[in-house]
Specification:
Keywords: Hydrolase
GO biological process, one term: phospholipid catabolic process
GO molecular function: phosphoric ester hydrolase activity
Family: Belongs to the bacterial phospholipase C family.
InterPro entries: Alkaline_phosphatase_core_sf, Phosphoesterase
Number of helices: 16
Structural class: alpha/beta
């Protein structure tokens, strides 16, 4: 594969299921395992006499955010509630094929009337960028979230094939930084390059290794560098796009997380694609677009429970004790390259194991194969299906569209930047507190830090913290600190030296 692909670009959007975003693409290509409108949940899961909620095509702007915690997802896929602290197994025994029957029931518990929200999807014309990519390249209709839970554990799997036991927001672990080896480490050790192009302080810094001095130069401001690097043919081997996770009036969120307008996400995908398409590296590029998890939206394909291996034998903390033996709900996945035939549909993989599936660990597994890396990261990417088989052409296409359709805004109002932050956004604030040194103060409490914090304030805080961390890293490099060093900043105080006068190394802090 290295003779075809030398650059893999990855964009992970937020909180939408396959049926919700791409299910109605079946009307354009019947080979896609999408929806017809016959799909149904009942108000009481398993009770056919209760009101039926059929899947529709009326999705536009979604607010508020549906439930997508571990407990909520259990109810969505099995139809039965899961109680926190319960002694019941986290994977329901004797149910090899989850019925996917509890989406409407669980949504009504979140908010009356929300069942209509989760039981609807977008018409192809409402997501015109995806409509074009589905027609011109490949869609995978058997790609699942790695874990049946919320954002961060699934994002961990994208680059490390494990969440190291995380199924929720563990403040201490996230602040310290997750300790597992990543695909970034594997690429670096093998002499390959990578780059993080960020529009917001990057979430990959939740991996502790990514805070090392040797990696600080891998972080690039998207707006300053991405198009230029595309134009100059300077993209590294592995590219990660980190989008805007906060929704501001001047800089609206473009990660597709409710309550953000998905037209902004469409615009981001269009922008990335068009920059890649015009790059001299286009003929050697594979662009992967998927979503971290389904966000509580309905999907009709049963989540896999058969033969799913634990990545590393680490179970989640009590009371759940999840063994990582089932996947999450199906999510959208698009594969874009001039080596792909138009209208390709990728179904279930043929291996490496009889039970293998496409899931987020398929990304490091495929990157390993493309770049000839020596070892898998965990047992999960060793098991996950790889998708290089989609590159079927003997020569790259020359007829790929140069531009994609212009998205139409789906939200009539401007961003509500003074609303409170979501759980995911609170996790990013926790990360910022760790980078900034605020977590080291005696009276630091995460809940107190984020209590009452608005989106606008969170953006200001996170941006300032990341800027300070980068400045300190640069000072550490000037002090010739070892590349594996992770700066630990003291909390900023009016009397403390500024980051322009000290670095994050211990001798400087003592001085």
């Amino acid at each position: 594969m290295a003779d075809k692909i030398k650059t893999v670009v990855v964009l992970i959007q937020e909180n939408r299921s396959f049926d919700h975003m791409l299910g109605w693409m079946k009307s354009l290509n019947p080979e896609i395992d999408g929806v017809t409108g016959a799909e149904v949940n009942h108000a009481v899961a398993g009770d056919a006499s209760s009101p039926a909620v059929h899947f529709g095509n009326a999705s536009q702007y979604v607010d508020p955010d549906p439930g997508h915690s571990f407990m909520a997802i259990y109810e969505q896929v099995y139809g039965d509630p899961y109680t926190w602290g319960s002694t019941a197994p986290a994977t329901k025994p004797g149910v090899p094929v989850p019925p996917m029957s509890g989406f409407a029931q669980q949504a009504e518990k979140e908010k009356p009337g929300m069942s209509a929200t989760v039981m609807n999807g977008f018409r192809p014309d409402a997501v015109p960028v995806y409509r074009e990519l589905v027609a011109e390249f490949a869609v995978c209709d058997r790609w699942f979230a790695s874990v049946p839970t919320s954002t961060q554990p699934n994002r961990m799997f994208v680059h490390s094939a494990t969440s190291h036991g995380l199924v929720g927001n563990d403040k201490n672990k996230l602040t310290a930084g997750m300790p597992q080896r990543t695909i970034f480490d594997a690429l670096h050790d093998a002499g390959h390059s990578f780059g993080i192009y960020y529009q917001f302080p990057p979430a990959v810094l939740l991996y502790r290794n990514m805070r090392q001095l040797k990696y600080i130069g891998k972080f690039h401001a998207y707006d300053l560098d991405f198009k230029r690097h595309c134009r100059e043919g300077k993209l590294p081997n592995y590219v990660v796009i980190e989008q805007r996770y906060l929704d501001l009036k001047l800089l609206p969120g473009n990660d597709d997380h409710p309550s953000h307008d998905v037209s902004r996400g469409q615009r981001l995908v269009k922008e990335v694609y068009e920059a890649l398409r015009s790059s001299p590296q286009w003929s050697e590029t594979l662009f992967v677009i998927t979503y971290d998890e389904h966000g509580g939206f309905f999907d009709h394909v049963p989540t896999p429970v058969d033969g799913v291996p634990s990545p590393d034998g680490i179970a989640s903390d009590a009371p759940v004790g999840f063994a990582f033996d089932r996947l999450g709900v199906r999510v959208p996945a698009l594969l874009v390259s001039p080596w792909i035939e138009p209208g390709t549909v990728l179904h279930r993989p043929s291996g490496p194991e009889p039970t293998s599936q496409y899931e987020h660990s398929s990304i490091p597994a495929t990157v390993k194969k493309i770049f000839g890396l020596k070892e898998f990261l965990t047992a999960r990417d060793a098991w996950a299906g790889t998708f290089e088989s989609v590159l079927t052409r003997a020569t790259p296409r020359t007829d790929c569209p140069e531009t994609l359709p212009e998205p139409v805004p789906l939200r009539a109002t401007e961003a509500e930047e003074h609303r409170g932050i979501s759980d995911f956004q609170a996790e990013l604030v926790q990360l910022a507190a760790a980078l900034n040194g605020d977590h080291a103060t005696e009276d630091y409490e995460t809940d107190r830090l984020v209590e009452g914090m608005t989106v606008a304030k969170a953006s200001e805080y996170c941006t300032s913290a990341f800027d300070r961390f980068r400045e300190v890293c640069q000072r550490c490099q000037e002090c010739a600190m070892d590349g594996s060093y992770v700066p630990e900043l003291p909390p900023p105080t009016p009397s403390a030296p500024s980051s322009s006068k000290l670095c994050g190394c211990f001798p400087c802090f003592r001085a």
